[in-house]
Amino acid sequence: MAYSRGSWKIRLAIAAIVALFSIVSYYMASDKNPVTGQAQRVAMTTDQEIALGLQAAPEMIDQHGGELPEQAAQDRVDRIGGELLQALNRDLAQQGRQNPFPFEFHLLADPQTVNAFALPGGQVFVTAALYREFETDGQLAGVLGHEMGHVLSRHGAQQMAKQTLTQGLAGAAGVAGGDVSSARMAQMVGQLVAMKYGRGDELESDEWGVRLMGLAGYDPNAMIGVMEILERSGGEGPPEFLSTHPKPPNRVAYIKQVIKEEYPDGVPKGLKP
């Protein structure tokens, strides 16, 4: 019996050390975002983000059936993405800041998965299933701007830092509990926390979408049309885009609020739809 109590104390001490190390490592992983100027807890440098995105891009492309072999469609994606990027760089230059991310835009052949996503470092992807639904250039610009926002806010690097923290805490819980189920339960809790933060990231990226669209001369109200597309694309279940993104009705209200804050006197006339 004494041996059992001693073992429990040892496990608890080891768990405390593992947890403390994980927490300290997380809070020491701080870097200044060169685009926003904000301090962030991230798991890598911007150069490492770029390298990681370039390394992972071929695999992501393969998972979605390769790139769509329609040059005119890819040219359209490149043109609109380029307009957003140029507008961003001009705006940052006026603020004395610089965008370190060399964005590349990919149109994937996947005809079924309604989705768009970005890898850390600037690799942006849109599936053909979503692309086919766009009615205007502004809707495409809204999606590309949103995904660029993930990169500019360094959401991927932030999430990786959080995952490292939750994995460390899950390991500590497993040591303290003395069984695998304790670690699994702690990991599930960590995943729920990460999902909540992920949804906040999505709304922050909607802000980027609105801002970048306006800078590039597109009417940000086109993003509302994108939400309508996503809502009706659900079919028997929600599109994969909604597995991590907030539901369209919630985002429509938020986007309208952001537009009102960005343009308190109303959206200027003459912007591209």
TrEMBL record:
One of its GO terms (molecular function) is metalloendopeptidase activity. It comes from the Bacteria. InterPro entries: Mito/Outer_Membr_Metalloprot (IPR051156), Peptidase_M48 (IPR001915). Binds 1 zinc ion per subunit. The keyword Transport does not apply. Keywords: Hydrolase, Membrane, Metal-binding, Metalloprotease, Protease, Transmembrane, Transmembrane helix, Zinc. Belongs to the peptidase M48 family. This is Peptidase M48 domain-containing protein. It comes from Blastopirellula marina DSM 3645.
